């Protein structure tokens, strides 16, 4: 394979620093290679621009992706360590080398995800997107292909990638939307585009990402995109006319609060869409309410506790209360007085009997 900057094949050295190892992935405009630094031995991923996409527009997109990724400091955003130049001057992104699969690959294999698995993936994505918005970055191309699931367990393995058409509102001002003329590229992205993004409006903001997250979450739970159509015209009609089927019909097992919130994220009116923080709070509430915990515990069988000998506790003598002691002592005291009186009366009766007997003898 030949690309910008000379040979891009296994064993080739790029920019005098990185030795290419294997092709990891390939898209319409670039290819991602696993590489190793010649001096340090550090393994990285190199995103190289294809010769067919080598134009000022695509070079600008590469630079924009590097700037956007560096502006967002979040553990769930792929890190761009450096931007180097190939022999022909085209930019090459030096990024983290991720091991795993994309969310698209997992949905292709499993079709649907459980509510617990979907929340476990989407919460770190929402956190990363919220951090990007606070940094003045709007992703504009969120889709399962741009959510990477690493081998690390839980939120640590989730990464948001490809900020190639991100809008840097804080540093660049309002940036126009690029026109992708390739049919596959348009259809592959348009499923997750908000209505204002489809119309090509210039004043789009972070709420286009809220729409895309709603589409992704809907697809994870229902097994199909809410904007599914046979051709681009039908897809555009669903997006712009509001004919999306409710999530509670496509996935009846989803709790009502989650289903309603996802449908609010897919509202055509920009002002009616909730923020990502509200979605995260609702999802966390579902987890705290026990549903997430029950779904997680149902996956793994519980280990049986070892049997132990039944030890009965020793029966302890009950100590009498102070009142009972005093009453008992009172009974003892009263009993003693009665006995003494009985003895006295017996001695007195004996004396009287002796006196009578002696008088009779006289």
Compile the SSE list and pairings.
Blueprint: E1 2-3, E2 6-7, E3 13-14, E4 18-26, E5 30-37, E6 43-49, H1 56-71, E7 80-85, E8 91-95, E9 100-102, H2 103-110, H3 115-134, E10 137-138, E11 147-150, E12 158-160, E13 167-168, H4 183-190, H5 195-198, H6 207-222, H7 232-241, H8 247-250, H9 256-265, H10 276-288, H11 291-299, H12 322-361
Helix pairs in contact: 3-6, 3-10, 6-9, 9-10
Give a brief rundown of this model:
The chain is α+β, with helices and mostly antiparallel strands and 362 residues long. The chain has 12 helices and 13 strands. The N terminus and C terminus are likely disordered.
Structure description:
The chain is of the alpha+beta class. It has two domains: 2-95, 2-Layer Sandwich (Phosphorylase Kinase, domain 1); 100-299, Transferase(Phosphotransferase) domain 1 (Transferase(Phosphotransferase), domain 1). The chain has twelve helices and 13 strands. The longest helix is centred in the C-terminal third of the chain and has 40 residues, at 322-361. The N and C termini lie far apart (155 Å).
